[in-house]
Each structure stands twice: as structure tokens, then as C-alpha cells.
Amino acid sequence: MSGRSEARRKKSQWNFPTIYNLALYGAQALLSWEMTTAVRAEPLGPPNSFAKRVLVTGGAGFIASHVIVSLVEDYPNYMIVNLDKGDICDSHFVKLLFETEKIDIVLHFAAQTHVDLSFVRAFEFTYVNVYGTHVLLSAAHEARVEKFIYVSTDEVYGGSLDKEFDESSPKQPTNPYASSKAAAECFVQSYWERYKFPVVITRSSNVYGPHQYPEKVIPKFISLLQHNRKCCIHGSGLQTRNFLYATDVVEAFLTVLKKGKPGEIYNIGTNFEMSVLQLAKELIQLIKETKSESEMENWVDYVNDRPTNDMRYPMKSEKIHGLGWRPKVPWKEGIKKTIEWYRENFHNWKNAEKALEPFPVQPSFV
């Protein structure tokens, strides 16, 4: 069987939904009940009946699922193609996807993102995050899509104690995850330099909110405390992070989609910064309703730090501010909504308890 025939056979088996208007794909563990019951069996109509055809890779993931919700609400004349089960590293699949779906715009979220896991599965991160991105770039370029948005991370800058990073700051990643994202950025930028292919890169701060898998620090701490378990803190907990609420980062992506200039990089950040230890104590106060320092310490468990754990990722975001975007959701409002969501929805994930354990980090890049 030829590669194209095999690709067509496998594509027919994908869970590969086309999302139209409010007929949103029901990713049960990620989306609200209202959205999961909104699936309709409406005819989609011919391709030319849509203003744009947008491919979202990793659409069942945390941030991308929020973006899809906003896209189908704000752009009812767009057809959203959600790729969450196909293999972005399979060039036959990806090429056929662009040929059959006539994609105009790509929002590339799909990636391996667990920093701790990247230390023990570095080759897997390189394969998916770098090679997979290159496969998508090649197919998108051949299909002449109008815009390719690559979703990167503030971690490509490496850590800094005082200097704020802007988009021209050098990439100095310190862990395998960040290294893979930085390497993929180089491929993306090369397509602009060589072909003037209309790519845009975003680098965002830590995002939090409903629907995030509890391996990440905020949902992990919330879930641990709600299950009467201690917050597990790597090292001293003095590392600080900037936290951005999910709906704010969605608005940033939609701003870049609409106004972002080809060949440019946009930091998506916030001035709200707190240490991991401070985060744990604030969540302890909110969930366990205690203010005593000694009582709060009883809910903290200090575990071995990972091999590299950057102290800060301070970023300047004036460039995207110039496009009209700024974060709007205050921390107290965002964290309250997040706590309430996990209180009601933690059970939606299978085996989520495993994500609450301190990750067994091995200091190896292999």
C-alpha cells in the first residue's frame, strides 16, 4: 500500500471533527457541560461557504480548547478543523490534511509540554516538538496558507534575576522542553527568512484556569489541597512565575490572529508575579481557610528540585500591547474561578491522581 493510500485509510479512522458555529467537539474532560452538549449534526456546506478554514493542532489541550471555544463563538463564519488525534510527525497524514481540508490558517498548539517529563523523555520531546513542527511547516508552506502561528514559551529565554526579556533577547533554554521549543522556533523563523512564509511566533507566561490537566503547578496544588494532601514544592519554592488567566491568553491569540504581522514574535505576559511558595500559601488560605504561618507550613512538602529550575522569566509585552491587547482578569477573580472548577471537575480525568505525585526527575537529557 502506498504512503498516500495508507494516509487516507488512517485519516478515515481519526477523531477529526470539523467544528462549525457552536457545534463544538465534546472533549469531556476539557470543556464545560454546556459546550459538550452543543454538538449538532448540521450540514457544513461547501468549502467556499466559509470565510476562513482554520487548523488548530492539539485542540483538545488546555489552551487550545479555550481558543476553539472563542473561535466558534466569535467567528461563526470560520470552519475550525480540530486536530487532536492525528500524528503531526507523519508527513503523509499532514500533507493529505492540508490538501483535503483546504486550510487557510494554522494555530499550532500541539506539543509535549511537561517540563519535568522532558528530562526523562528528551528524545520524544525533540521528535514531537521539533520534527512535528517542521512537518507542519513544510505542508503548510506547500499549501500556501495565509498565516502560521507557532505557540512557544517564555522558557526559551532561560532564567533571569533582573533583566526583562523582549522579543529580541537571545534564546538560552535550560531544560529539554524549552530547548525543543527554541529549536522549533528556529525552523519557523527560517521559513520566514528563506521563503517569506507568513509565520508568527508567540511566547507566553504561565497560563492557568479551568480545564488544565493537574500536572501543572496551580491545578496540582489546588487538587492536592482539595484531597487533603500537601503541596509538593520543588526545592525552596522561591522561584517566581508570572501567571496569566486562560481567557486573557485566548484574547492575545485572537489579537495575533487578526493583527499579528508576518515574521514577528510577540511576548504574551503579565506583571503579576509570585513565588511558588507564595502561591502554595495563598491556595492554602483559600482552600483550607487558615492564615497561621505554622498551619500553612503543615500543608507544604518540600521535595527534591529538578536539575534546572529557572528563578524567573520576566518579559516585556509592549509589542503586543501595541496591537491593543492587555490582560484583564485580576488574580483573585481568576484563581477563585479556577478553584471552583476543580472542585466540581477533577473527577473528569482518568487516573488524575497520578499527576499529583512529585515527578521522579532523573538528571539526564536522554
Automatic annotation (TrEMBL):
SUPFAM superfamilies: NAD(P)-binding Rossmann-fold domains. GO terms for biological process: nucleotide-sugar metabolic process. It holds the Pfam family GDP_Man_Dehyd. Its cofactor is NAD(+). Keywords: Lyase, NAD. It comes from the Eukaryota. One of its GO terms (molecular function) is dTDP-glucose 4,6-dehydratase activity. Coiled coil: none annotated. This is TDP-glucose 4,6-dehydratase.
